[in-house]
Design a protein that fits this description.
Chain lengths: 391, 474
């Protein structure tokens, strides 16, 4: 053995400690002098790694797995829209949302108690609607009751959302009485729960919404909406006539909290649904997405001021030019438009939205089918007809 | 996210305040490290021999719970994974998911080349960025090694994008990787049956490796075994479906990511892959547009639920565009400001007598959209302080009002720049016409609902025969 034998022994020892064993078989060394040359320690360990690979496991190593469940201290309030005969209303199919005790579709933890629902959007005087939406409703766009019937009977909407846009003094200034009469007709036309929206003009809405609450006595309608600068008349009317309030806040979690705090001085948590604003895909979706996700998370962590179910008016996706623009390089707008509304809706669905207000029947129906599948059920798909292909 | 305080980090830094890094001081650098705005290697002195142990320790502290995996080589690579948080508002999401378009050996050469070219050239301009697709996945439909090698060759010639070699047959993967190993493709995928041969191929050709199994327990088992073999550059695919199995798909992706980040399950701390392209086999009979539709839905849900690599069959713009925009939105840094400075912007050389004056909100997305539509006109743009809300939200939320417009009219000095007194407001703010007229004393005309119509509007209405009532007041 030469002078380097100390090093050699050290390297061999390292080899052994790294690999667990070194086996020498059928070796007989008979020499006066033996020289072993290593290129260096790095080269040796590389060699070692490749040798190890060759002696890799012959069978899969066992591993355990337990789903990462946890208990949340809070839960979402259950809110029922629509009332049947027993409760003094005429709705045949009331819907209940909320009740979750886990983040959206953490089904390894809990199957949703009340899967999210879809409201079909209609207007008292049709705004300029994109062609792919008009194509599905045709003449019914001139008749809100017929429009609503199509939503329910043909496209499977769980609710109908009528916006009384024309009551705006700057649009048609439709009188409160006329608006109320239309709402009464709508209650005759469909038997699902209804959502009634004002025009967004705060002074006029303060007259319109209380009147609607009055004529819908017993029906448990959703009044849309109360805002931080116009909530009291809506809250008072909801209290007096047993309705539910949509609390609208502009992508701002603190304003959402403040508004809920104000409202609970008048009505119970079971009469509040929050709309923290859902921006269109490509036009601020990420801010709305995160506010909705944060609200849901805070609610589950126990923040009582944020435990209302959440609504998203994804009908506004059609404000995005990518949804309606005629541009052959972007593909047919009959498909691109609803896909725009649908993509945004799916993001909000996974963030924690319980109630969608939608414009395109194909997009709406797809969300409904997906909610069914995600909740462990199965819904019969009718895509071909609803996305307008293969006709 | 694992919360790391600067006081834990500072003692491991050189503490010399040498000023080489941007924060200038070691404490400042420690804070920025904890905010993940800088990486450990951006402190040059730390790379000196005497700090070696500290460097190793710091790298360990800042190793993300989800490893980063690089697919491709040189200038043509994509990095996936590296996630730090479960919810984007906790910090931000890291490395947007790569979108790969699939070609396979049942297609004609023409179809393959066409699809590769479509992927190469896919782009969409979106608020100052170009959105693109990232990779090509080459799938073996008939498990014929020679045919597969030929397909890989054709694709490799027509694109520089990173590649994914997709087959569960090791002989097929070997035939393909021989052709393109220098480009470091992702081998996709090791399964409970083929793990040993696939692991050896990944080792031999030094390529990242996908692992596929529909059971999470089995994924962990395969990962554990591959790691003993020395394969650690992995991407996990728990499988996907779009009907009764959709719940399983979303649940598995969610579970894996929670286990890895919140519960620090190291065997699951790898990027996730999803292959909506597999829907085509199951649903082909429903018709191409229907499958594209469903593929787009599944892809969107996967982008939201943590997938880092998405393999899709469709490169049609109507189904892919919403997806790339969604990806951009979700992976935006939530700390980035939403708004631009309110005030006056002037474009071109506006004539004081007749240049149009437009109004919009100070929401960044709205502002940049309007900007791109009007910047070639000679005009003024008044940006109202809507607290970063878009026009329609701001109108509904009373952040866009007559008073707000009056504020910017006064502060901008627009009255000195034009001699007329007419404002053009967005169509989406139509119902504020009277309110704005009362508050400003200017005439108001309602412009288009979408700013893309402004150039046409200006030509036809503002300067044209059919001039607006407001304009006649000049």
């Amino acid at each position: 053995m030469g002078e380097d034998d100390g090093d050699l022994v050290r390297i061999l020892l390292e080899l052994i400690s790294a690999s667990g064993e070194v086996e020498l078989q059928d070796i007989a060394i008979a020499a006066e002098e033996l020289t072993v040359t290593f290129e260096g320690k790095a080269a040796l360990s590389r060699l070692l790694a490749e040798e190890l690979a060759v002696v890799s496991p012959e069978t899969l190593l066992e591993a355990e797995y337990h789903p990462p469940v946890r208990t949340y201290p809070g839960s979402i309030v259950e809110v029922t829209l629509g009332a049947g005969r027993a409760e003094g209303g005429t709705r045949r199919h009331p819907v209940t949302i909320g009740g979750e005790r886990a983040p959206a579709f953490h089904t390894f933890q809990e199957i949703p108690l009340h899967p999210p629902v879809i409201a079909g959007s209609i207007f008292d005087s049709a705004p300029p609607l994109p062609a792919p939406v008009r194509a599905f409703f045709g003449d019914a766009l001139q008749d809100p009751c017929e429009w609503a019937r199509l939503w329910v009977n043909k496209f499977g909407a769980d609710l109908v959302d009528l916006d009384l846009t024309s009551t705006d003094p700057y649009i048609k200034d439709t009188p409160v009485q006329d608006a109320a009469r239309l709402v009464e007709d709508l209650l005759q036309a469909v038997d699902v729960p209804i959502i009634i929206g004002g025009s967004g003009n705060p002074q006029k809405d303060a007259q319109v919404l209380p009147k609607i609450a009055e004529v819908c006595e017993g029906e448990r309608v959703l009044l849309s909406s109360a805002t931080l600068d116009m909530w009291k008349p809506v809250a008072e009317a909801a209290k007096r006539h047993g309705q539910v309030v949509l609390a609208w806040s502009p992508i701002d979690i603190n304003q959402a909290k403040e508004l809920n705090r104000n409202l609970t001085g008048y009505i119970t948590p079971a009469q509040i649904i929050m709309d923290p604003t859902s921006a269109a895909l490509g036009y601020g979706l990420e801010y709305a997405y995160s506010v909705i996700e944060r609200i849901r998370h805070a609610a589950l962590m126990g923040d009582k001021e944020l435990q209302s179910p959440q609504a998203a008016g994804t009908a506004n996706s059609w404000g995005a030019r990518e949804a309606w623009k005629t541009d052959p390089t972007l593909g047919p707008r009959e498909l691109r438009g609803p896909m725009w509304e649908l993509t945004g809706s799916l993001a909000y669905l996974l963030a924690g939205v319980d109630l969608f207000i939608m414009l395109h029947p194909g997009a709406a129906r797809t969300v409904k089918d997906i909610v069914g599948w995600l909740s462990g059920g199965s819904a019969p798909p009718t895509f071909r007809e609803l996305i307008g292909v293969g006709k | 996210m694992k919360q790391i305080g600067p006081m834990k980090v500072y003692p491991l830094l050189p503490k010399t305040n040498c000023g080489v890094c941007e924060p200038k001081t070691c404490m400042g650098f420690a804070v920025q490290l904890c905010e993940r705005n800088f990486t450990v290697d951006e402190c040059p002195p730390l790379l000196e021999e005497k700090y070696r142990e500290n460097l190793v320790r710091l790298r360990e502290i800042f190793t993300p719970p989800i490893r980063e995996v690089v697919i491709g080589s040189g200038d043509h690579k994509v990095t996936i994974g590296g996630a730090l948080v479960l919810m984007r508002h906790e910090l931000r999401y890291t490395n947007p998911p790569a979108i790969a378009v699939v070609v396979d050996d049942s297609m004609t050469d023409e179809t393959v080349t066409k699809r590769v070219q479509e992927t190469n050239y896919f782009h969409y301009k979106y608020i100052g960025k170009i959105l693109t697709l990232d990779a090509i996945a080459i799938r073996s439909a008939n498990e014929h090694p020679e045919r597969y090698a030929r397909l890989v060759e054709i694709v490799a010639k027509s694109t520089q994008l990173p590649l994914i070699l997709w087959s569960h047959n090791p002989a097929v993967i070997e035939a393909g990787v021989k052709v393109v190993h220098a480009r470091r493709p992702l081998l996709y995928a090791a399964t409970r049956e083929n793990w040993k041969q696939m692991g050896e191929l990944a080792l031999h050709y030094r390529c990242p490796l996908g692992v596929y199994d529909h059971e999470i327990r089995m994924l962990r088992s395969i990962v554990k075994t591959l790691r003993v073999m020395g394969v650690d550059d992995l991407v996990l695919d728990p499988g996907c479906g779009f009907r009764g199995d959709l719940m399983e798909t979303v649940s598995a992706l969610t579970q894996i990511r929670i286990a890895a980040i919140r519960d620090e399950d190291d065997l699951l701390g790898y990027p996730l892959a999803g292959a909506p392209a597999t829907l085509w086999e199951k649903l082909y009979a429903e018709g191409k547009d229907v499958v594209r539709w469903k593929e787009a839905c599944l892809s969107a849900m996967m982008v939201v639920r943590y997938v880092d690599l998405l393999m899709v069959s469709s490169a049609s713009k109507w189904s892919t565009l919403p997806l790339v925009v969604l990806r951009n939105n979700i992976y935006n840094d939530p700390r980035k400001p939403v708004s631009v400075e309110p005030g006056l912007r002037t474009f071109g050389e506006p004539d004081p007598k007749e240049a149009p004056v437009f109004i919009t909100s100070n929401f960044a997305l709205t502002y940049y959209t309007v900007l791109s539509d009007i910047e070639k006109l000679d005009c003024h743009l008044l940006v109202v302080d809507t607290e970063g809300m878009s026009v329609d939200s701001a109108v509904a939320g009373r952040k866009f009002t007559g008073a707000k417009v009056a504020e910017v009219v006064a502060s901008s000095g627009i009255a000195e720049k034009v001699s007329h007194r007419t404002l053009i407001i967005p169509g989406l703010a139509a119902r504020l016409k009277g309110d704005i007229e009362d508050a400003t004393g200017w005439d108001v005309v309602v412009g288009p609902r979408d700013s893309s119509s402004i150039p046409g509007y200006v030509k036809a209405k503002w300067y044209g025969q059919d001039h607006t009532p407001g304009w006649s007041a000049r």
